[in-house]
Amino acid sequence: MRADHVRERANWMRRRLLAMIVEAGQGHPGGDLSATDILATLYFDILRFDPAQPQAPGRDRFVMSKGHCTGALYSALAGAGFFPEAELDTYLRPESRLNGHPNRTYLPGVETNTGPLGHGLPVAVGIAIAAQIDQADYRVFVLTGDGELQEGSMWEAAMLAGHRGLGQLTVIVDRNRLQQGARTEDTNALEPLADKWRAFGWDVAEVNGHDPVALLQRLDAACLPRSRPLCIIANTRKGKGVSFMEDQAGWHHGVPNAAQYAQALAELDAELVA
Amino acid sequence: MSAAAAPSGLFDCRDAYVRAVEELAVEDDRIVAVVNDSVGSSKLGKFRDRFPDRLVNVGIAEQNMVGVGAGLANGGKIPFVSGASCFLSARALEQIKADCAYSQANVKLCGISSGVAYGELGATHHSIEDVAWLRAIDRLTVIVPADPWETAQAIRAAAAHDGPVYVRISRMPVPELDRDHDAFRIGQAEQLRAGQDVAIIANGTLVHRALDAAHLLEAEGISARVINMATVSPIDTAMLAQAATTGAIVTAEEGLAHGGLGGAVAEYCATHSPVPMRMLGFPGFLPTGSAAWLMDRFGLNAQGIAAAARDLLAVKAR
């Protein structure tokens, strides 16, 4: 039941974010689509929040470290009730609250302004330390791109989280194996990635990042009391759900033309029927 | 008034800083300190002993230190993020911009041992660019206190201010200034001495030297106004407009001669109240030498400031 709901919401997010990108004439569809199932699982099941009180001290926090994937983030936030769905149509327009990278001073539900890579995890570690000091029970989730793990600041933060045993903290790696221009392993290899996190004092789990059943199982476990931070390596495909975008570095940026957009929507229709 | 009660002698402003943070921590349990292995150089050992759970040492990792500070603010804390100003400002500049200023996170950044305090250690350890870099960042308050009283006041004002603040804290021994008021407000400059012929605008360690320069000039019959411009951003434009009416402005700071306080004063005056200026500071990467030697070598002393004032008065007389 829960997985069906997540699946339905993820399909809606994919349509919505493609519509935003087509309307705006720019965007990052590849990374948006690889992150969609993860964000759908978080926002439509796991996270505890009240969109009417986005600053409530006890809320669960989600930090979008891969801040360029605003198509996925904004569709999730709108779907979760932080702002009207119709506002998604203003994506990237002059004076829109929906900037190309998320801005917390514009938009409720955004915890910190990201965009430059390597910023989200340090901030999330700080939030988790605040929870540790207060013995509060809210949880902190971060989604990072895999290429982003080439930023040194991520490992500064990972080291501290391991050292302090931040059990409130879960980082999810969107492991689509592509960065902007090429494969991660051809650029500056991340493997053995799980071993790296373990060496920094983290528990590590791997999951199919497009399977809501598996994601729910892992994220439910992430919510249990823990004494160490958890890294979930979510194996994903960039562009997931749109056949011609899948696993193609060229769709990091990009806008589908009319025929491509029609095909994408048809594929998403078919997925919903199946 | 505190100046009257102050003991004679010289003081390290770090002591006033840690005292203020400890007092604030007693009053408000949201106060936490974040350091980069700099418990000793930030003089936070006593804070750590009194509030062990509220001292977060991230190790030698400045980018993470500032990001963690922003996260602590998200979790409802008021973090005082302290590290040597050369590393805090340069190494974590993007975190200061994005995580603190752009995100409007309630983080208090304390740049310790600023300016050329680390004299002989060389340009890697000098922090003379920090004010120029940081005042360029929108919505970041930048304060350069001059003495222990003002340091404590700046820390208290930073804690009460909702938003990111950078406070530059010197380790160079300075006297307590003689004041006739006890009000510190962010963005409000302080006129320490009246004068009509020239206005000397300084902050930090240069305020004391500016006052000494005014004494030298007085003996020559020159009436020099001395203004302590502790807040560089946002700058006190009303005070600048008044200073410009003297027809001559000298700025002096323990930092680059361009881009910092002098730059801020020049930007305002050039566009609102054009006035001949001299901007005193360091030219760039500096030769080997102690802090005191470097200050003298580059004219950042009473004689250098007085000479700049005389030079300007000659321009004014033409």
Task: Please sum up the structure shown.
Chain A contains nine helices and five strands, in the order H-H-E-H-H-E-H-E-H-H-E-H-E-H. Chain A has 274 residues and is of the alpha/beta class. Chain A is globular, with a radius of gyration of 17 Å.
Most residues in contact, chain pair and counts: A-B, 34 and 30 residues
Helix content of chain B: 40-55%
CATH topology (level 3) name of the largest domain in chain B: Rossmann fold
Rounded to the nearest angstrom, the radius of gyration of chain B is 19 Å
DSSP strand content of chain A = 5-15%
- Kindly report how far apart the N and C termini of chain A lie: 16 Å
How many separate domains of chain B? 2
Structural class of chain A: alpha/beta
The CATH architecture of chain A is: 3-Layer(aba) Sandwich
H/E element sequence of chain B: HHEHEHEHHEHEHEEEHEEHEHEHH
Order of helices and strands of chain A: HHEHHEHEHHEHEH
The CATH class of the largest domain in chain B is identified as Alpha Beta
Describe the structure in your own words.
The complex is a heterodimer of chains A (274) and B (318). Chain A is an alpha/beta fold. Chain A has a single domain (2-273), classed as Thiamin diphosphate (ThDP)-binding fold, Pyr/PP domains (Rossmann fold). Chain A contains nine helices and five strands, in the order H-H-E-H-H-E-H-E-H-H-E-H-E-H. Chain A has a five-stranded parallel beta sheet, sandwiched between helices. In chain A, helix 2 (29-46) packs parallel to helix 3, helix 2 (29-46) packs across helix 8 (212-222) and helix 4 (120-134) runs parallel beside helix 5. The longest helix of chain A has 23 residues, at 2-24. Chain A starts with a helix and ends with a helix. Chain B has 318 residues and is an alpha/beta fold. Chain B contains 13 helices and twelve strands. Chain B has helices at 2-5, 13-27, 45-50, 62-74, 85-91, 93-102, 130-135, 148-160, 206-219, 237-244, 261-272, 291-297, 302-317, and strands at 31-35, 55-57, 78-84, 108-112, 141-143, 165-169, 190-193, 198-202, 224-228, 231-233, 249-256, 277-282. In chain B, the strands form two sheets. A seven-stranded mixed beta sheet of chain B has the order 2-1-3-4-6-5-10, sandwiched between helices. Chain B has a five-stranded mixed beta sheet with strand order 7-9-8-11-12, with helices on both faces. Chains A and B meet through helix 4 and helix 5 of A and helix 4 and helix 6 of B.
